[in-house]
From TrEMBL:
Keyword entries, A-Z: ATP-binding, Host cytoplasm, Nucleotide-binding, Ribonucleoprotein, RNA-binding
InterPro entries in UniProt: AAA_lid_3 (IPR041569), MT-severing_AAA_ATPase (IPR050304), P-loop_NTPase (IPR027417), Rhabdo_ncapsid (IPR000448), Rhabdovirus_ncapsid_C (IPR023331), Rhabdovirus_ncapsid_N (IPR023330), Rhabdovirus_nucleoprotein-like (IPR035961)
Locations listed in the record: Host cytoplasm; Virion
Domain of life: Eukaryota
Protein known as: Nucleoprotein
Principal location: host cell
CC per GO annotation: host cell cytoplasm; ribonucleoprotein complex
The organism of origin for this protein: Phaedon cochleariae (Mustard beetle)
Protein family membership: Belongs to the AAA ATPase family.
Domain Rhabdovirus nucleocapsid: 148-466
An example molecular function term from Gene Ontology annotations: RNA binding
Domain AAA ATPase AAA+ lid residues, every copy: 69-102
Amino acid sequence: MAKERHSLTVSDLEKIASLSAGYSGADLRYSNVREEHYCNHNSFCPAQARLQLVTRLMAKERHSLTVSDLEKIASLSAGYSGADLRNVCAEASLGPIRSIDAALIERVRADDVRPLEMRDFEGALGRVRSSVSPADLERYPVLSITLTINNLKEARECLKKAITDQNIPLDLAASFLYYYFETIVCQNTETWKSYGVDIAPKDANVTPLSLLTVRQVQNILEYPKTEQVRQTDDPWMAIYVLGIYRCVRAKAADYKSQIAQRITTQMKSVSAAATDMTEAVSIYQSWENNRTYCTLVAAADMFFHRFPNHHLSNMRIGTTGSRYKDCAALMSLGYIMDLLGLDNLSDLFEWVFLNKIGDEIDSMMKENEELCDQYSYFPYQVDLGLVNKSKYSAAANPHFFEFIHLIGCLLRSQRSMNARHICDSQSMDMLQNSACVAYVYSHTFKVTKVYAKDEEELKALQAVEEELSDYDPWHELTNA
């Protein structure tokens, strides 16, 4: 309406608002979710996928659209994303109201507003353009998913039964998460970008699916259902399904049992009726290698890491392992920096005396990587399928990983004592290099007096600290 000439008063606009609230409220709540429907030789074509979306959006609206009309809308909207198509429906829903004479607006009841017609969509398609080009869509991580359920209600009924029977089909679990993620909305407080991709502008409403380009096909299946389920069961069932990710990755039986108990505690905090999680979820071991499931897990964790105060952020109890997955070498770097009390990487790197360690450090420290951006896609590169193999894993950097944890062992760090021994190459040279670092940093201390009686004493302390800050442990070692 802002772009059109009109003579409506404030009261007229309020009347329109009340009419539209009763007429198309569902359409006005759509968030910025990028969906791309694609086809290959054995799946639905783009027009068919768009037809399914339009049909679903119109299911609860009053309209006079025929099947032929819906097919025409799907055809005319070629190249539109899911969010664009939702905007088209929202724009079209205003057509019946706009057709009312302004002079009569005060006397019109909601029941008197005509149903949606094809002409409303033709006008909406002329005003709402595709916001995302095919090239832009390819820049987002891709979620390829087969939806085997029509909607969240059916998914809820089937999943509750499957959890009770301890027999959850993976496609059902993925379909439930997809539909449920559509309902999890949070307002973005600042521009969110990663690797040049505009994830969300400031003040935009986002969902976990906003992080992805969604390529969906439908293959509706019949599953056993239960009616003993409510909408309030959705959060704990989502925690259950996401928690499987963490449980199946735990190898030690005792640890797996502890994780299952922690996840159960989180589910019970949401609903006392939640089903306990047990080590029996090990039957879903294959899920760990399923691209669709892992992408959904990563999207959930990235979303809730960005919005930690969301009331559903406890879902991360099952997804945290996705963050920095297969980045053990990179995580070890942060660990040793903290253990030695270092602030700059150069303070550690100047103690590297072996070329193989240096080569592995160089391979990790590449430009244009978002290592320090906590809201980046970077920590989720493995589960989002952005790389085929992580170059930050212990396996990709065995000498560096061994070097770090040899230092930790010599400094009696339990974490390093529990680390895997994965490299025998240049073992004595590596031990000597590590011993050198451990010796120096076990004989130097960075302490300061925290409190002073008066300003004069504080100044004296600062002078001493400045003198000590010039101290070079390497100088002491080479002149010992």
